[in-house]
Amino acid sequence: MENEETKGSMLLPQDKYLEAGLHIGTRFKTIDMKPFIFKRRDDGLFILDLRRIDERIRLAAKMLSKYKPSEVLVVASRLYSANAAGKFSNLTGVDIIKGRFIPGTMTNIKLPLFKEPKIMLVCDPKGEAEAVREASRMGIPIIALCDTDNNTAFIDWVVPTNNKGRKALAMVFYLFTRELLMSQGKISGYDKFEYKPEYFERFEDERTEEIAKTIEAEEAKPAETDLLPEEKEKKEKEKKEEEKKG
After folding, report:
1. How far apart are CA 107 and CA 207, in angstroms?
2. Could you give the strand order of the β-sheet that contains 72-76, starting from the edge strand earlier in sequence?
3. Residue 222 confidence (pLDDT) above 80
4. Who's near 136: CB < 8 A, 6+ residues apart?
């Protein structure tokens, strides 16, 4: 069914991408990610190109759709990615590993949880480096959600995106789910997809929600390594002033 999000246009209106913050990168840029970066903001954050984000999500979904759900493995080590990817897994039937990736999962056939996927999607190649190494060693194609600070060695298809933010990850897996359900014939059009991005963002139990809020509060505070030179200098002065008062 033709609508504003049909082939030839973006998967989502641009303002929806902006609201979810998929384009917001970090204050670090790797050479690997340079082709996907649009600009550097005055506050030091690198901004990803929305058009590249959109086209890469679209093509990644097409790649995944060529495999049976049981042949696809998603690795999501962090809380936000595990939540959104878990719902993607529940709705499409793809396999998933949440939390710590156990070494040998794809190389040691004696492990009880040994897996042999035909393709793998990782949510952060830095945090899921062991999964990337094993998949590469076994010749398994790797799709990765990559932020501006990621290296892309061994990655076959880069999906540039904010891979840390709760809303951004929810939107990515909302789109992956919608596109895969379309390819599986489970929905006939985008208007038949009953889930909203908020569903992929929401935690289903209060305890996990509270943990998520704590993490959000902590991540909102810039780490020493994230500070610009002038910010570091200001922080050092404040620290010295506090010591003098003490």
Report:
1. 35
2. 95-98, 72-76, 119-122, 142-146, 157-160
3. no
4. 142, 154
For the chain, first and last CA: distance in Å?
A: 68
Q: CB count, 10 Å around CB of 241?
A: 10
pTM of the predicted model, to two decimals?
0.83
Distance of alpha carbon 154 from alpha carbon 10, whole angstroms:
28
- Which residues lie below 8 Å from residue 95, measured CB to CB, with a gap of 6+? 69, 70, 72, 73, 74, 89, 115, 117
Which one-letter DSSP state was computed for residue 193?
-
Which residues fall within 8 angstroms of residue 11, CB to CB, at 6 or more apart? 5, 54, 57, 58, 175, 179
CB distance 124 to 145 below 8 Å: yes
What's the CA gap between 41 and 85, in Å, rounded?
Answer: 30
Give the pair of three-digit tokens for residue 237: 């002065």
**Pairwise CA distance, residues 199 & 217, whole Å:** 21
Residue 224: burial class (beta carbons within 10 Å; 0-12, 13-18, 19+): exposed
Distance CA 210, CA 203 (A): 9
Mean pLDDT over 84-101 rounds to 96
Residue 98 backbone dihedrals phi, psi, to 5 degrees = -105, 145
Q: Which residues pair with 73 in a beta bridge?
A: 95, 120
- Kind of pairing between the strands at 142-146 and 37-40: unpaired
State pLDDT tens for residues 28-52.
999 999 999 999 999 999 999 999 9
Poorest-pLDDT segment among 104-108, 110-114, 221-225:
221-225
